Amino acid sequence: MQMSREIELEGHIIDSGIMTKVMDQVMDMGGNFEILVFDVGKQKTDPSYARLRIAAPTEEQLDLILSEVFRLGAHYPIVADAALVPAEGDRIVPKGFYSTTNHPTQVKVGGEWIPVEFLEMDCILVVDKEQKRACCTPLSKLKKGDLVVVGEDGVKVDYPERPREGGRFEFMHGTVSPERPSETLIEQIAREIIDIKRGGKEVVLVGGPAIIHTGGGPALAEIIRKGYIDVVLAGNALATHDIESNLFGTSLGMDIRTAKNVTGGHKHHIYAISEVMRAGSIRSAVEKGVITGGVMYECVCNKVPYVLAGSIRDDGPLPDVITDVMVAQDTMRRHLRDAGMVLMVATLLHSVAVGNCLPSQVRTICVDINPASVTKLMDRGTTQAIGVVSDAGTFFPMLAKKLDEYAKTFSV
Amino acid sequence: MQMSREIELEGHIIDSGIMTKVMDQVMDMGGNFEILVFDVGKQKTDPSYARLRIAAPTEEQLDLILSEVFRLGAHYPIVADAALVPAEGDRIVPKGFYSTTNHPTQVKVGGEWIPVEFLEMDCILVVDKEQKRACCTPLSKLKKGDLVVVGEDGVKVDYPERPREGGRFEFMHGTVSPERPSETLIEQIAREIIDIKRGGKEVVLVGGPAIIHTGGGPALAEIIRKGYIDVVLAGNALATHDIESNLFGTSLGMDIRTAKNVTGGHKHHIYAISEVMRAGSIRSAVEKGVITGGVMYECVCNKVPYVLAGSIRDDGPLPDVITDVMVAQDTMRRHLRDAGMVLMVATLLHSVAVGNCLPSQVRTICVDINPASVTKLMDRGTTQAIGVVSDAGTFFPMLAKKLDEYAKTFSV
Amino acid sequence: MQMSREIELEGHIIDSGIMTKVMDQVMDMGGNFEILVFDVGKQKTDPSYARLRIAAPTEEQLDLILSEVFRLGAHYPIVADAALVPAEGDRIVPKGFYSTTNHPTQVKVGGEWIPVEFLEMDCILVVDKEQKRACCTPLSKLKKGDLVVVGEDGVKVDYPERPREGGRFEFMHGTVSPERPSETLIEQIAREIIDIKRGGKEVVLVGGPAIIHTGGGPALAEIIRKGYIDVVLAGNALATHDIESNLFGTSLGMDIRTAKNVTGGHKHHIYAISEVMRAGSIRSAVEKGVITGGVMYECVCNKVPYVLAGSIRDDGPLPDVITDVMVAQDTMRRHLRDAGMVLMVATLLHSVAVGNCLPSQVRTICVDINPASVTKLMDRGTTQAIGVVSDAGTFFPMLAKKLDEYAKTFSV
Amino acid sequence: MQMSREIELEGHIIDSGIMTKVMDQVMDMGGNFEILVFDVGKQKTDPSYARLRIAAPTEEQLDLILSEVFRLGAHYPIVADAALVPAEGDRIVPKGFYSTTNHPTQVKVGGEWIPVEFLEMDCILVVDKEQKRACCTPLSKLKKGDLVVVGEDGVKVDYPERPREGGRFEFMHGTVSPERPSETLIEQIAREIIDIKRGGKEVVLVGGPAIIHTGGGPALAEIIRKGYIDVVLAGNALATHDIESNLFGTSLGMDIRTAKNVTGGHKHHIYAISEVMRAGSIRSAVEKGVITGGVMYECVCNKVPYVLAGSIRDDGPLPDVITDVMVAQDTMRRHLRDAGMVLMVATLLHSVAVGNCLPSQVRTICVDINPASVTKLMDRGTTQAIGVVSDAGTFFPMLAKKLDEYAKTFSV
Predict the structure, then answer these.
(1) Using an 8 Å Cβ cutoff, are D247 and D275 in contact?
(2) A-B contacts at Cβ under 8 angstroms
(3) Which of A148, B20, B33, D219 could be bridged to D397 by S-S, CB 3.0 to 4.6 A?
(4) Higher-confidence residue: C11 or D353?
(5) 3-state secondary structure (DSSP) of residue B207
(6) Contact (CB<8Å) B259/A188
């Protein structure tokens, strides 16, 4: 173990588990550590401080280890500026580029710590030295000549500490069990929505067409009408079946009030799209009185912005659908800027897409009938996601009821 | 195709699909058929009649084919008495024994058609010549000397015709999609429960512990209190966690009102069982005021019989649990005699067990968060089962509400 | 029942179940029927013929009923030309437009029956009177002035008859059980692939990234190298992780040979995409020796065309990805023209997308670890799909082995 | 925070995460802590030592907190003898009884630490003072007068430290993803089986009937024949379908080589049971040449003991089935005494049952097509379980191959 470097850790590093994670990481990767200083916060409000010497058999291995522990919030005692290398072409990363986490991050540029903007995971850190800005940049937007951070020097991550008392959902992290009391969880989601909105942040809904098929549409429309949702992110299918159910009472040709297939119902979604096409857009179809209710109608009437992202399996699609997925992704990103909470219901595709663009401090709740959907979302890096295994068709009516109850309780 | 025999088919054989099924079966098994007579009912109320000559290359193959088409309701034009062979030992079947379907069946004994009692699938037909009775007998109850029907002669099955107008659930047969309007389906289940009870038949609940874990317990208790359920079939776990939730507010140690694990909660189910043990039985614990609410409490107070069948994974178990599974199976069977409807919620094990003992005309509804559970139930022969993919914790509160609404509507 | 019309049915209408389906449909929709002529094929090779008078209380209801039974292959005794109405704008359908099934279809134009080209479900029938051509047209491609078939007159559907002997997979239709003998099914898929190719049709693979994550990549690459696959339809993720696994031995940062996450592995997929970006395309990266093996490599080397369709959750994406989903859909369609078989593995999104574009006679096999995926595919209209519940990581090695065995057996 | 007590922690308490867990627990439960002494092991092989003062607002709350941290391995600096209270009746626990974890545990009796025997979770600690023995006792076996440990004094738990280098499966703990490289995992299972056996411990198979239905039977039979399995725990269904497949080539009437249902196949499992009944037992049926191959056959021939536990859904059952579930549970327990590894395949019921009886140091691997099965097993307390999402029908042939490969490699 000839190679070694000193690193520092600060904050609630014991009770947040970061100290443990760092030691685990070092040893799992074949390194070793010596604790040089360890000042433990005696009371629960005291921060702790540790200095460790990390050692490894080779320079290369040491770098790999350091690269991982820096992602957990460790840093060099004296921090140099971040190294910057210009991108040699559009969408081409320099060797050794710094790949972002979705945790709050700072970069040292010109001796100063700059907070990173537009945080999301697996992106590139691009620095504008003149403007003193550092932006998280997806590969698709990297331009030739952009100054890219390489290596770990001069980057500091605030690894999220485990929240303590009053954490409404903390107990659920990392577990996805269908054996939880549904009504309790839905009540907690209702409280969280109201608290987030009172805190001045936005609540974003990400939804799939099963919301409509399972009959959850009217309750969701009511929730939007009452102002609980600030942005809707979805695809062609949710909007089409929502409009179909407004025009014909069916969803994919099935009557929502009887659950039976309706004669000629297989044409309904094509008619629905065609009618919106004739009007020019969903907004215009609402204004012309073609669409008279439902989720999209309430979005239009209540000025709730929506993004409909195209997918390879779309019929039609509706004129409002953004068929270029990279354009759709960017539009979606812009609408996530003020999100305090994202509620994902019955859509794996859009949930993973949105999860990719979220910083880890956004409350992320994923409701799906299939526990595997939440597992996949977390496998893809959205580790802050909390999974609720439930059925959209019973979830939304109960959520609407709980929102009303909690809103009332509070006003009194 | 040297070997051939004539068979007859009567009833709504075209529009019920039986004619098609018979032809399919014959040809799939390498046989052939000639239609000798085919009198089609011209109007939808008219029955049809067909006589077919079934042919096959060998006697053995012909017998195999006939054996299958007889299960669909075909029979010989002139029917001989059923052949009877005594069982050579307890639980030993004679070669060629007739294996029952779960459809209404008659046996010809002494020139007379006798209806088969206690119908369930995969059983043995035992005839009591003196009493002129024929009983469907599970292998476990077959005694040495019992007269067992062998071959297909003298047995007639009424294959269920596809129900027509007004069929509330017919559209759902054979499909298990989570994309159905939940509220609509739950309303239909509520109506069915009330109709079944008005028709003088019983409603049987088969339930698993997830009902309690997901917080569905109070709504189910209310449904029992209001008299909608006539029998409860479950296991040690449902009863234990129901009693635990009454004594401690928890289910497997998780507080149902907060969804968090409670300190010392891992002991609660053992305490719950131990308290019932001290009282002597669940009934006695209710009478002594130890248990003051919940599913089992309502069963006791409202004289709703329950069967708790033991399973290999039981803790305890409660003194009311029948630990010998064959005894439990028989007890369960007795409580299914007057069932018009069985509602199975969140338990694959008990659902398959009960499904095995049901004749096909009992309305069977299986509610589970996992669509694969219903598929398995149908794979095991309970083909009349209708699957609803939903979450017990939201299902029961909505069912309780719909039952109240429909009961009110009707009384007015 | 004042309103009535006569219709005809021909072919193996009894043993295919079509006669039954027609009668069911009429009665379920509140109509009635009288059988005027019924000539039953006495032998299994004889076709049957039926003439029915269909009646309904109102003209409108009668039209609805006829519209449905025509989809089953019924037609008027004397067939008029199809009625044609020009589309009033791009992507706007005329009222009463004929919505296609995915079964073989003919249209009567100028007294002549013309076969419909490019069949897929839920599309519009556009007729070119001069060229005497009729094309199935998705809404997105409908142009102002296109002559669209409206009503059911002059359209004839060949509803697929139930296949009889030798049907390799027929027994599986409509059921999706994980309790099937996997090795047997995989052997049958191997035989089917070889038979389809010998019959001169193409085998199309539709695949998701789980193929790579579960370690199925090398076996799939081998299958492509040996020439069993003619087209690959996938997305950015499959190609990215395949290339990542070639460059780094990892898939999403997990070492495929140890199943452990690799240090710095979270950067690998970005590096992989960036390297392809630098080369210009996947083909070019193969030619420059950057990519040296794997699924995409074998596609390039063996001239197997691939379509990579963009999705909202894409990182990068690779330069070969078609980011406009409607362009991607059209490209995909072109590659499905000669498909005799489509093998869909571990991707719900692409499976539904491809299923939408397939005529019903294309053998469609869907392999997924989750039985609900196949149910969804069938719910979306791809009723010919056969579901195999298995794990891509064990499926492909066994398929490669069975293909070799069967290919050998046959050559001898 | 008037109430407080001092506790100690020793060992690799930082890098095992125990220090973190203790602090978390205290604060989550509304308590507080002060670190009095904290000697950190400087090198990774050094143990650490901590003394903490735990405080809480009330005596009761303090007790609750201490009760939880003791389960993590903390203890009082000076440890008194465990308090013992006689059970007042059979199956009735004294108030405050100590409920066991499944981790190695010691009890202080007469000033001496005694290791607890027959460890499993949620049981009662019964001490025999004369024999100086302490046994983990399920409620069902608690007898009046048994000396039961109450409170936490004098009990010490060795909470498992997180294993470090070379841990073959550690990376998988707590995650159940279908996106793992199947072949790699199966190879690791093969190595583990061989290593466990070389270490002189037993490998126990817990299996469900889907092993037979999916065609995994022959490979499992081969694995048993080659001596890799020491005990088989299953139910009536696995044995019945295994014997059915030997006698008739079918499983639940489906031909395993063609995947098609066989005429008369619905009778096969009844015949199979009846034939064993005639022989008297499975062993006797093997000896008489009735059963000539398969899983049960290899068990008999290779003297591998098996326990067939009855369940409420059993047909028959076979004469070898233990129909009283509490007797079956005890028999199972006895066969788990020397288990070093338990391989659970395709059976949730038996997996949970066996999991309940295992100490946490037994390697526990659960293979199921449904990721939710493993989640449930872990929810029920078998937290050491490692989940592999795969299909029994492809899993066993690959496992057989890998076992052979690894066994060969090693012998050379």
Answers:
(1) yes
(2) 115
(3) D219
(4) D353
(5) strand
(6) yes
Choose from C24, C352, C377 for mutation: most chain B CBs within 10 A.
C24
Rg of chain D (C-alpha set): 24
The three state secondary structure string of A62-94 is HHHHHHHHHCCCCECCCCCCCEEEECCECCECC
pLDDT at C164: 47
- Looking at residue A164, its pLDDT comes to 47
CB contact under 8 A, B313 and D91: no
Of B263, B309, B317, nearest to D312 by CB-CB distance is: B309
Q: What share of chain B is helix, strand, coil (3-state, %, to 5)?
A: 35, 25, 40
Token readout for C348 is 């719900």
In chain D, what residues touch A24 (CB-CB under 8 Å)?
Answer: 15, 17, 162
Q: Which residues of C touch B372 (CB under 8 A)?
A: 178, 371-372
CB contact under 8 A, A181 and B393: yes
What fold is seen in the domain A79-162?
2.40.420
Whether residue A347 is predicted with pLDDT greater than 90 in this model: the reply is: yes
> Which of A355-369, B58-72, B294-308, C326-340 is predicted least confidently?
B58-72
Residues D175-180, mean pLDDT to the nearest whole number: 72
The set of chains that have 3 or more CB pairs under 8 A with D is: A, B, C
- Alpha carbons within 13 angstroms on the beta-carbon side of residue A156 total 21
pLDDT of residue D165: 45
Strand arrangement of the beta sheet that strand C124-128 belongs to: C83-86, C147-150, C124-128, C133-137, C112-117, C105-109, C155-157
pLDDT at D178 over 80: no
pLDDT averaged over chain C?
A: 90
Q: Are D267 and B139 inside 8 Å of each other by CB?
A: no
CB within 8 Å: B371 and C372: yes
**Entry pTM:** 0.90
Q: Is the peptide bond before B397 cis (omega within 30 degrees of 0)?
A: no
- The CATH number of the structural domain formed by A1-77 is 3.30.70.2690
Band of residue A46 on the pLDDT scale cut at 50, 70, 90: confident
ipTM: 0.89
CATH of A170-409 among 3.40.50.80, 3.40.605.10, 3.40.50.10690, 3.40.50.720: 3.40.50.10690
Distance between CA atoms of C243 and C296, rounded to whole angstroms?
7
Residue A136 has pLDDT above 70, yes or no: yes
Parallel, antiparallel or unpaired: strands B202-207 and B231-235: parallel
Query: C327 is written with which tokens?
Result: 């362009």
Nearest residue on chain C to D171, judged by CA atoms? C260
Decide if A199 contacts A376 (C-beta within 8 A).
Answer: no
Average pLDDT over residues C11-39: 79
Which phi-psi region, left, alpha or beta, contains residue A88 (left: φ > 0; alpha: ψ -120 to 50)? alpha
Could you read off the pLDDT of C202-254 as tens digits, one per residue? 999 999 999 999 999 999 999 999 999 999 999 999 999 999 999 999 998 89
Measure the CA–CA gap between D360 and D384, rounded to whole angstroms.
6
pLDDT band at C166 (very low <50, low <70, confident <90, very high): very low
Integer distance in angstroms from the first to the last C-alpha of chain B?
A: 66
- E strands along C166-273, which residues? 202-207, 231-235, 250-251, 254-255
For residue D88, give the amino acid letter: E
Q: Which one of A125, A260, A274 would you mutate to disrupt binding with C, by most C Cβ within 10 Å of its Cβ?
A: A274
| Domain edges within chain A | 1-77, 79-162, 170-409
Q: Report strand pairing: B363-368 vs B385-389.
A: parallel
Same fold, A1-77 and A170-409: no
> Which residue numbers of A have CB closer than 8 Å to D's CBs?
14-17, 19-20, 23-24, 27-28, 30, 32-35, 38, 40, 42-44, 162, 164-165, 174-179, 371-372, 375-376, 379
**What is the H or E stretch that residue D84 is in?**
strand D83-86
